[in-house]
Amino acid sequence: MADALVPVINNAGQWVGDPTGLQGATGATGSTGATGTTGATGTTGATGTQGATGTQGATGTQGTQGATGATGSIGPQGATGPQGTAGAQGATGIAGATGSLGPQGATGPQGTAGAQGATGIAGATGSLGPQGVTGPQGTAGAQGATGTAGATGSLGPQGATGPQGLQGAAGPQGATGAQGATGASTAASVFPATNAIANDVDFFAHPAGSATAVDSSLIFNTQIVMPRSCTFGALHVVLRTTNITPPGNGPDRQFTFTLNVNGADTAITCSATSLLNNNVTCSDTAHSVNVTAGQLVTLHVIAAGATPAPTGRIISSLHCQ
Known about the structure:
six-stranded antiparallel beta sheet; mainly beta
């Protein structure tokens, strides 16, 4: 009984049969394809060298010569008879021995070129000949365009330190270099002082410490001895009057303060006009004075007008470095 057919497409039109499908009948053999084009003929190989001429074969041996009869005596010369008819050609005699090779004849004229013979079969490639002599150096070619720069190679290792060279001769004296920057200054010395105003218009105030100013005849009582050399570069003064009531005290007025070194006034000076119960100031930072250790320093004060002077105080500071 034949196997029942199994449906392969369901009602939805989907394939549900064997995944390989049904085996169809063998198709007819296809026609033969067109013949491909003939490949290009290869190049002819190089002509081989002419082979060497073979050696000449040996000449055969000469047959034995028959014995020669004795020669008769020569009769008298007879008269020349008439020319007889030519006799029949005699048989060719036995070939004589090969004579020695004659001298080379003159070269005959150049014959006309024969027709080109057919190309012979290509001979085997000859062995490589010896290296030819090197030809002369050709002329230099034109400079080629500069190629692009290659990448920088990695840094090579540090070479060994070379030996110490000989001491060179001393070079000429170089030009004087530019002035270097001013070095750092030493610490400044500050001389602060507070003095009561002397009841005078020309007096000296102590440059350091606290005291009462004295009149000009007692300058020595206010001088200090410089402990080291330095440069005075600033004078600052605060002036304050506290009593201007006569007859014991005079009115407010202008006071001039000057640095004095060894009894002589210097360029460092400033002036201020007093104002009762008010601080008035003056300073001089524009001038400088050099002093050396051991010199005597004080502050010279001159008040405008006549005595008596007002009562008050002078606060000062001197900077030296």
